[in-house]
Design a protein that fits this description.
Blueprint: H1 7-20, H2 32-71, H3 76-85, H4 92-101, H5 103-120
Helix pairs in contact: 1-2, 2-4, 3-5, 4-5
């Protein structure tokens, strides 16, 4: 019985890893052992940062909403509270988009929130 040589399989696996690390610095894209380690780190960073991106976007939306709310004479927290009192259920992504692209509609929302706040007080 002939022995099985695994050179083709190993070569294919190495080529796959080296392809994944294309663009990495130094020998991290050309030497297999370094490339494998670099790939493992890169994939873990990608997984972690996909989760972090969601929080980053939420922070950006809150900053944009707060800046637009202050232009209408109300703070961010007062705006969100007033919208809840007025039963206006818009998430922060939509509010930030309105603040950036449709200032008139955002102004109406801010006015509605201010009215509900003054009525509740």
């Amino acid at each position: 019985m002939a022995r099985i040589k695994r050179g083709v399989t190993t070569h294919r696996r190495h080529k796959k890893i080296l392809g994944l690390t294309k663009g990495h610095r130094g020998t991290n894209h050309s030497l297999y052992r370094r490339a494998h380690e670099s790939m493992l780190h890169a994939l873990s960073y990608a997984y972690r940062h996909r989760k972090e991106l969601k929080g980053d976007m939420r922070r950006l939306w809150i900053i944009r909403i707060g800046a637009a709310a202050r232009e209408h004479g109300v703070s961010y927290s007062q705006l969100i509270h007033g919208l809840k009192l007025a039963d206006i259920a818009l998430d922060r992504k939509v509010l930030a988009d309105l603040a950036m692209n449709d200032a008139a509609a955002f102004g109406e929302l801010a006015d509605a929130a201010k009215e509900r706040l003054s009525a509740a007080a």
